[in-house]
């Protein structure tokens, strides 16, 4: 059996190696090489423990993963012992940069220690703060333009504003979140070509592009 084979192997090994220090050296190098080769695997196993018992990520969460100069946004469809499987969704990041979507992304669990992962739907959060800019020329009625923008954004984001208020109230039981602002916010910035009205509002974390295109 397996034990007998190992015993025979060790007997033969000791018989042919005259100096025991050679054996110790060989085993030392072999152990070091094995440890280096298995480092990522061990870290992924430890990362799995952090993910499962820490509760930072769950299947179904919408997450953003940063890897070098590339960003991936999608939904977690599986968490295994060694990796997180992500289904890439169509987002503003996809539209502006990647120009690809619908891919299956495999993320080693050890990324929780070395890379930044953002969770849009942590602990049941359904909303995320999104922003859109509207350009207005200097000869326009700035006050009227801002009033129109505020009315449109406030009306379309009303349902998500109330949902965000409830979600954050629940989240405050676990985290120290003080004075959360979920109502739409508006800012005006001076540019060389005119004024920029920046509107920020709560929207669906899984479909931010829908409300953005509506507004």
Automatic annotation (TrEMBL):
It comes from the Bacteria. It is found in: Membrane. Keywords: Membrane, Transmembrane, Transmembrane helix. One of its GO terms (cellular component) is membrane. GO terms for molecular function: mechanosensitive monoatomic ion channel activity. The chain crosses the membrane at residues 7-36, 42-60. It holds the Pfam family MS_channel_2nd. Residues 40-122 form the Mechanosensitive ion channel MscS domain. InterPro entries: LSM_dom_sf, MscS_beta-dom_sf, MscS_channel_2nd. This is Mechanosensitive ion channel. It comes from Campylobacter jejuni.
């Amino acid at each position: 059996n397996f034990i007998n084979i190992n015993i025979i192997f060790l007997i033969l090994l000791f018989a042919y190696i005259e100096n025991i220090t050679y054996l110790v050296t060989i085993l030392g190098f072999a152990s070091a090489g094995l440890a280096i080769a298995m480092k990522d695997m061990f870290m992924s196993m430890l990362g799995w423990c952090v993910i499962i018992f820490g509760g930072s990520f769950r299947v179904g969460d919408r997450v953003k993963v940063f890897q070098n100069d590339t960003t991936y946004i999608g939904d977690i469809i599986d968490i295994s012992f060694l990796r997180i499987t992500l289904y890439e969704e169509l987002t503003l990041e996809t539209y502006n940069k990647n120009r690809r979507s619908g891919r299956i992304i495999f993320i080693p669990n050890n990324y929780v220690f070395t890379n930044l992962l953002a969770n849009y739907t942590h602990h049941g959060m359904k909303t995320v703060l999104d922003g859109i800019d509207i350009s207005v020329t200097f000869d326009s009625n700035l006050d009227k333009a801002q009033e129109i923008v505020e009315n449109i954004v406030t009306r379309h984001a009303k349902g998500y504003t109330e949902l965000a208020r409830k979600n954050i109230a629940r989240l405050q039981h676990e985290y120290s979140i003080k004075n959360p602002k979920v109502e739409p916010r508006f800012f005006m910035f001076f540019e060389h070509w005119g004024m920029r009205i920046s509107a920020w509002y709560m929207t669906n974390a899984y479909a931010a592009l829908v409300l953005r295109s509506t507004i």
